[in-house]
Amino acid sequence: MVRLTTTRSVTVTDRTGLLTDRYELTMLDSWVRDGSADQNRAQHSAVFEVFARRLPEGRRYGVLAGLGRLLPLVEAFTFDSDEVAWLQAEGVIGEQTADYLRDFRFRGDIDAYPEGDLYFPGSPVLTVRGTLGECVVLETLVLSVLNHDTAIASAAARMVVAAGDRPIIEMGGRRTHEQAAIATARAAYLAGFASTSNLAAGRRYGIPTVGTAAHAFTLAHRSEEAAFRSQVDALGAGTTLLVDTYDIAEGIRTAVRVAGPALGAVRIDSGDLADEAAKARVLLDELGAPDTRIVATSDLDEFVITALADAPIDGYGVGTRVATGSGHPTASMVYKLVAVSDAVGGPLRTVSKKSKDKVSVGGHKTAFREYDDGRLVREYFITDGALPDRGKPVQVPVIRAGEVVHSPGIEEVRAFTAAALRTLPAEALSVAAGTPYLTVTLDNPEETA
Amino acid sequence: MVRLTTTRSVTVTDRTGLLTDRYELTMLDSWVRDGSADQNRAQHSAVFEVFARRLPEGRRYGVLAGLGRLLPLVEAFTFDSDEVAWLQAEGVIGEQTADYLRDFRFRGDIDAYPEGDLYFPGSPVLTVRGTLGECVVLETLVLSVLNHDTAIASAAARMVVAAGDRPIIEMGGRRTHEQAAIATARAAYLAGFASTSNLAAGRRYGIPTVGTAAHAFTLAHRSEEAAFRSQVDALGAGTTLLVDTYDIAEGIRTAVRVAGPALGAVRIDSGDLADEAAKARVLLDELGAPDTRIVATSDLDEFVITALADAPIDGYGVGTRVATGSGHPTASMVYKLVAVSDAVGGPLRTVSKKSKDKVSVGGHKTAFREYDDGRLVREYFITDGALPDRGKPVQVPVIRAGEVVHSPGIEEVRAFTAAALRTLPAEALSVAAGTPYLTVTLDNPEETA
Q1: Cβ-based burial of A426 (10 A; exposed 0-12, middle 13-18, buried ≥19)
Q2: Dihedral angle, C-alpha A151, A155, A161, A167, nearest 10 °
Q3: CA distance B43 to chain A (A)
Q4: Predicted confidence band of residue A41 (pLDDT cuts 50, 70, 90)
Q5: CATH ID of B153-327, from 2.60.40.10, 3.70.10.10, 1.10.530.10, 3.20.20.70
Q6: A180, B180: Cβ pair inside 8 Å?
Q7: Is any Cβ of chain A less than 8 angstroms from the Cβ of B96?
Q8: Half-sphere exposure of B378 toward its Cβ, with a 13 Å CA cutoff?
Q9: Which H or E element spans position B296?
Q10: What is the C-alpha separation between A142 and B169, in angstroms, rounded?
């Protein structure tokens, strides 16, 4: 579905061809000139892989996210004639490459770990095969989407695990770029958050949206009571009243007086949350509102949520820390050429960089996992194409000949993530700083036989 | 200018009405029901302010950014009939509010610190005046744009100061959301970066773009020499050759052999950069290429750049650390109601929250700065509207009756930022951890007379 409406002053395009770094097009330009760009269409002439050399410091696992956003953006990776003319005028490309780009679209194949799956250092989470030219230009788009969304989902999953049965609302949109806010809500939801405050994410992805009132609402009324009355009139007694604008205990008394014992919840957004929640619970019970829930917000993350486990809190709202990946706002995924053919129709040769501190393993990798009684115990990859006799392949086909062939709904991805997290033992799920639960390495059959 | 083209699978809209949190519309719904939303059109019924209670830990100043992106987004803050219907179906708003939103646009006034200006804890960087309804719905959009762009510009400015005369290329797009990448390039450029790798930012904002080749380019050729030859053929000897794919010294020898002494630059992207740069400089000089520059990349930030001050490096490329705000990916700006009228035509009353740890100063603030010999020495605000006899007002009108009245070009903003940084003394510009150079407080004339 494509929905577009023009308003006055904002320039938007849904083509993604320019969402790239200049060097991809200067490299392409060189390959178009020497004929490498489109060589060997029949037998894929290049293989690029996405992987992370490491997890963020202290993390034991990561959750891959962004694939559902990325695949349509790859399909939309095109250039219109104005964009091509601009690239020429800027000296990025010459005439031949201009011709190449005018009807460019990616026609190769992509395989990937399913969205929401776990990943570890070395996991080949996405593999792009095609001509050298069509693969090289996707680098920035692929990495932008996966690095951002994976950072959010990886942090969000830790918060979800820490919260146990208590639902979490994503409310971090105001702390990140306005479009990243929508992707943040999506990534947090697939990682197990219950809902979001972001309306655009609700509309675009069908994520449940929630939200009641800000401090401004109370301040704008003549009294806290008038504000609560107005909110209950509009939203019913089942709403959540924000009780900390002036004094929490007074706010709770007013809230129950106005809404009665059917009051849905009170929200506390300041102070020592464990202490305030304990006092609020006692007070709500005294006021005859034992079913009124307590929602805590204010700079929460997986560590604070863990520390609040014994407090009488029924749900959390998390903003800044989920939108910024809880200290790690980007995954460190890279997009690397691992195999290439030197001549039209020639065989692929393995390539890898030898740079100090950035050595890569070359070759097209196929990853496998082994489980023991439902518990993930090993992940490894082979590069020689011979299938091993044990383990389950991790990648699935997601694009074939340029067409998306994998598009699970967000609820399906969310369920997949929850199931993936259940394959980890308790120690891997701890929020305490640790080392990666697994490191993924080469294990070609002939080398271990 | 509005440019729109449909492609197949990507949904884009340039209306910004849904880039908001649900609670803004539930609050609006309540105010529409009780008649507060549109009261008092003639005499602004509400004043909201944006400010930061604190700077990121260790920072001495911040650089405000995002205003040039925000203002058109405020003009585009509208809802189409499908969006309004969706909001009704989701139970966010009732029929009356649906009518209100169908022809909604912001018709109030906004004043702000000029984009690129310095800010400190308490600086009222943006003030929104209008009806309660039209002001409350802008909260998320305003904060998303300012918090993101300001975080980038504030980090970028520190890197620019640390780099001195050496130019910095922004190349962090792959580490952040694909749309945030464009805003990142813009914010870094206005803070003093020399260029960006991001083509969309180049096209949209006229920022100079640069880029040459990745390791994949070298790996895809049969030899490093073949790769360099291909790049020099395409881009000329003035290009920058990436010399660390295999062995740096060998790479430099090959680069000079291929391009000759007119080789523009070599790029080093791994290893100990100070050490490698020193060796590279000696080698380039020995090879008769004294004018070939050395560009260093790889996890640079203001601290590493400071440490490299004595290394023979001619320019930097910064990616991850600028795109993630160098450890502080969001500014902690908030949007608070500070004054409101209770009745149609009634006077504004000052309001402020009393929550523990989040106390606010109420009242519509006007900020002033005092300089001594070009040096910023004081910033304060008044709330009573009486002009003080000293100091220069900081805010400028940016929107009047809903129309943007302030739209400097990006070069003008960049020059403004550079001038603003020159008003700080050396100790405030240090990258070492410190406290804010200033804290901005209330100083009503009658209280100091």
Answers
A1: exposed
A2: -100
A3: 16
A4: low
A5: 3.20.20.70
A6: yes
A7: no
A8: 11
A9: strand B293-296
A10: 21
Is CATH 3.20.20.70 the right assignment for the domain spanning A162-327?
yes
Give me A92's structure tokens.
């990025």
Helix (H) or strand (E) holding B446: helix B445-448
**E strand spans, B304-431:** 315-318, 333-341, 348-350, 366-372, 375-382, 392-393, 396-400, 403-404
Say yes or no for a CB contact (<8 Å) between A10 and B197.
no
- Indicate yes or no: CB of A203 within 8 angstroms of CB of B18: yes
Cα–Cα dist B69/B64, whole Å:
12
- Facing residue for B234 by CB, picked from A33, A83, A181: A33
Check CB contact of A33 with chain B, cutoff 8 Å.
yes
DSSP string, B209-245: B-----HHHHHHSSSHHHHHHHHHHHH-TTSEEE--S
Is B95 part of the contact surface with chain A (CB cutoff 8 Å)? Answer: no
CA distance B361 to chain A (A): 13
B260 closest CA partner among B284, B242, B278: B284
pLDDT tens-digit profile of A55-67?
999 999 999 999 9
Judge whether A349 is closer than 8 Å to chain B, CB to CB.
no
Which residues does B354 contact at the CB level (< 8 Å), separation at least 6?
Answer: A245, A246, A247
In this complex, the residue of A176, A209, A230 whose CB is nearest that of residue B30 is: A230
Testing the interface with A: which of B4, B15, B18, B21 to mutate, by most A Cβ within 10 A? B21
- In this complex, do A136 and B357 lie within 8 Å of one another by their Cβ atoms? no
Closest residue in B to A18 (Cα–Cα): B200
Option in B26, B29, B197 nearest A23 (CB): B197
Q: Confidence class of residue B346 from pLDDT cuts 50, 70 and 90?
A: confident
Cα separation, B136 vs B42, whole angstroms: 18
Count other Cβ atoms within 10 Å, centred on residue B354.
Answer: 13
Superfamily of chain region B22-137+332-448:
nicotinate phosphoribosyltransferase (3.20.140.10)
Q: Report the complex ipTM.
A: 0.95
Nearest CB neighbour to A76, from listed B7, B82, B352: B7
Q: Span A332-351, mean pLDDT? A: 88
Q: Is the CB of residue A90 less than 8 Å away from at least one CB of chain B?
A: yes
Q: Where in chain A is the domain with CATH 3.20.20.70?
A: 162-327
For A144, counting Cβ atoms within 10 Å of its Cβ (0-12 exposed, 13-18 middle, 19+ buried), the class is buried
SS3 B22: helix
> How would residue A356 be classed by pLDDT, with cut points 50, 70 and 90?
low
* Nearest alpha-carbon partner for B107 in B44, B16, B13, B27: B44
If contacts are CB pairs under 8 Å, which of residues 136-195 in chain A contact chain B?
A: 136, 139-141, 143-145, 147-148, 171, 173-183
Contact B247 A354 (CB under 8 A): yes
CATH of domain A22-152+328-448: 3.20.140.10
Is the pLDDT reported for residue B35 higher than 90? Answer: no
Q: How far apart are CA A402 and CA A243, in angstroms?
A: 53
Residues of chain B with CATH 3.20.20.70: 153-327
The helix or strand, by DSSP H or E, that contains position B295, with its residue range, turns out to be strand B293-296
